[in-house]
Structure formats: structure tokens, C-alpha cells
Amino acid sequence: MNLDPEVEKKLVEYQNMERQLQNVVLQKHQLQLQVNEMKLATDELGKTNSDDTYKSIGSLMIKTTKKDAEADLEDRIRMSEMRLNTLSKQEEKLKKDLTELRTDLEASLKGLSPEGGA
User: Fold this and answer.
1) Stated pTM of the model
2) Which of 21, 29, 35, 102 could join 94 in a cystine, given CB atoms 3.0 to 4.6 angstroms apart?
């Protein structure tokens, strides 16, 4: 069966949007894991009695104050949560757009189907 070029274009668009959605979901999951890890680090940092601690910068461990480490973690958590919010909005928009495109494609393909089935 030969598809109308417009339908083929929509199918390609649908596949691209599905890939985008998968990427957004994966990024969101990875970022959520990082946020959880940073929150755990903040909790552990709060339990320590020492005023000095170390933070990882690349492959180095740098001595810092507990106060600076907590502030750094809180900033990183805040920025990551803002990014998570953005990714959630992207995910919802992609899901909505995919649903609309799927409905449009189904209607287009129904019109191309021969009477009586396969």
C-alpha cells in the first residue's frame, strides 16, 4: 500500500516525537536520581559535627566548610528541581502532541484502508 506523502510525513514526525519523549523521560529520571543523591548528601552533612568537610570537584576532593557545602548542595538541588519542572512540562506537551498526532494519523489511515479489512 502506498501512503500519501502527507501521511508519511506525519508518521516520521510521530516517530521523532516518540524519540524526543523517550529522551525527556530518561533525562528526567537521571536528574531525579541526582536530586535524590544530593538530598541524601545534605541529610548526611547535617548529621556531622565537624565544621570542615570535603567536596568532590571532578576527580579531586577539596576541603570546604560545612556551611559552604550545604549552600552549594542547596543551590544544585534548586537548579536541578527547576530543570525537572521544565522537563515535566516538556513531557506533558509531547504526550499531548503525540496523542493529537496519533488521532490524526488514525483518521488518515482509516480513510486509506480498503473496505472489508486487511
Assistant:
1) 0.81
2) 21
Nearest to 97 by CA among 25, 28, 14, 23: 14
> Which structural domain, as residue segments, surrounds residue 75?
5-91
CA distances from 9 to 21, 94, 114 (A): 18, 17, 21
The dihedrals phi and psi of 51, each to the nearest 5 degrees, come to -85, -20
Q: Give per-residue pLDDT as tens, 56-69.
A: 889 999 999 999 99
Residue 112 to residues 12, 92, 99, 105, 109: CA-CA distances in angstroms? 18, 30, 20, 11, 5
**Domain count of the fold of the chain:** 1
Q: What is the pLDDT of residues 42-53, one digit of tens each?
A: 999 999 998 999
CATH of the domain at 22: 1.10.287.370
Using the Cα atoms of residue 33, residue 35, residue 36 and residue 42 in order, give the sign of their dihedral.
Answer: positive
